[in-house]
Amino acid sequence: FNKIYQLIRDNPVKNVIFLTGDAHRAQAVAYTDGKGKELFHEFMSGPLSAFQGWKSAADQTFHPKVIFEKFGVFNYGSLVLKRSEAQLRLVDSEGNLLFKGRFPSWVRRR
After folding, report:
1. Is the alpha carbon torsion for 28, 31, 37, 40 positive or negative?
2. Rounded to an integer, what distance in angstroms lies between the CA atom of residue 33 and that of residue 48?
3. Is the pLDDT of residue 102 over 90?
4. Residue whose C-alpha is closest to residue 27's, from 40, 8, 46, 51
5. pTM as predicted
6. pLDDT of residue 92 exceeding 90
7. What confidence score (pLDDT) does residue 49 get?
8. 70: which residues sit within 8 A by CB, 6+ positions away?
9. What is the pLDDT of residues 25-70, one digit of tens each?
């Protein structure tokens, strides 16, 4: 992963999103260059029926900035990609909205 991080940090790669589902929590994280500039995001959701996760300390290697996190709930997420933005929704198993976020799109306008 360090090589991927360095590639994104050192080149004009923009608005990368990693989707993960085996963390057993609902979470949105921005990773930075260590100086505050956001390089990419990671969106986590799940589980719908497995054991629920717990809070743990984030590895600081890639300078994470937690945007949202929720533990101890069954949940799922959806990501809608539009020309102007990516829209993330994290929802609990009862259909209640846990988090809604908008992130700039990587699609170039002509």
Report:
1. negative
2. 33
3. yes
4. 46
5. 0.82
6. yes
7. 75
8. 25, 26, 27, 90, 98, 99
9. 899 999 988 898 888 899 999 887 777 766 777 788 889 999 999 9
Q: How many CA atoms lie within 13 A of 25 on its CB side?
A: 15
| Whether pLDDT at 105 is above 80 | no
Q: What is the 3-state secondary structure (H, E, C) of the chain?
A: CHHHHHHHHHCCCCCEEEEECCCCCEEEEEEECCCCCEEEEEEECCCCCCCCCCCCCCCCCCCEEEEEEECCCCEEEEEEECCCEEEEEEEECCCCEEEEEEEECCCCCC
Cis status of the peptide bond prior to 12, with omega within 30 of 0: no
- The two structure tokens encoding residue 96: 């209640």
> Which amino acid is present at 41?
H
Question: What does the alpha-carbon distance between residue 109 and residue 98 come to, in Å, rounded to a whole number?
Answer: 31
Compute the distance between CA of residue 97 and CA of residue 95 in angstroms, rounded to an integer.
6
